[in-house]
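EI: anyone free to look at a 129-residue chain?
SC: sure, send it
EI:
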Amino acid sequence: MATHKGSEGIVKISNNAVAEVTGFSFDETCDTIETTKLSDSARTYVTDLTAFSGTIDCFWDETDTNGQGAMTNGASVALDLFPEGATAGDTYFSCTALITGISRANAIGSIVTASFSFQGTGAVTTSTV
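SC: here you go
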């Protein structure tokens, strides 16, 4: 069984690495449609449409124009998520994502952060480097 450290992760927007990423997450879901008949004794279902969404967390970097700067509210971006790094044989996920929210936080004694929420459009593709 392979295990990977979170520090191996990389996020890219249109092949440009996003600067100062501290973490990311994305959730894939699938709708279901009920197919139960009156004579059935248990409910039955089939799968239908899939969807995905997630967040990218960063230390805010206003100079990262091709990464953080490309993730403006409402933007459509080509997103690649590399949970185990980007060396030969590593698995990654590619998708088109719509940036649906940006949250920035600033407090005494901490680094300014930014969190970018996204909603996927189309399907997620799983590939290897």
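EI: The mean pLDDT is 95.
SC: 👍
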